[in-house]
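Appendix B. Extra example for self-study. Work through it before the problem class; the solution is given directly after the inputs so you can check yourself.
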Amino acid sequence: MTIKTYDLIAKDFTNAGSISSDIKKIAKSYDLPQDMIRRIAIACYEAEINMIIHSVGGNIHLTIDDDWVSIDFRDKGPGIDDLELAMTPGWTTASTDAQSMGFGAGMGLPNIKKNVDTFELLSSPKGTLLRIGFKRKGEHV
Amino acid sequence: MKLQTMLGLLQAKPVNVDDPYIVFREYFYVSCTDLMSDALAMICTNPAQTVLLTGLANGQALRTAEMMDINVIILCRNKVLGEENIDLAQSMEMNVYTTALPMFDAVGILYQEGLKTATRDDHQNV
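Solution. Structure tokens for the complete assembly:
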């Protein structure tokens, strides 16, 4: 079993993706299918970038047990105004800075949802929690 | 198509080569975009046979390729990586090349030669 927590600094584009890269390395150390490792890496990377672009900072918590790989992305605000709009492909509030880094296409949350087995998104002005899960046994649902 | 042939068609030069023998490997698919979320949305089923073609020469292009298990990037418009990102590319064992061609021309050449778009649905293009 693995439990690891990472602190995430807002607007830190230089290190963006380093946490997802570490999570991918940990996932590789388990006997997981290659496709699942790729789905974990892609979903984590999108979520990490989202937190860097939109939040004031927070943390990422990884848990791997016999049945599930679970990752919580928890930030300290400012929250997502309209969750339904945020899930719409192509809709974005990303800054031009984020877009110059190659992000802000409005595909982040839809792309995360496409790659995971479980997806929970809760948000208020005090913070957002994105909880994603990957079932270790059985098919991608 | 052998990577060597592809690089010749694009007159591409090396920026960071991790595996010198990679030019003899076959590639059939191209993920082509400057928007990394678009690249991530087009996750491909054959990353070992896929090249990322982009005009985005920064760490996020490298990270995106890393997450997708792609290990060849071709940069358009004579873009190169800064020193910091060369170090990152080396740590990722990434092979990066650059072509002077604009993306439209590079894509046109590769399309004409039979390379396909990298898509999730096993590369069935519509």
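Self-check: The beta strands of chain B are 13-16, 29-32, 50-54, 72-75, 95-98, 116-117. If your reasoning did not lead you there, revisit section 3.
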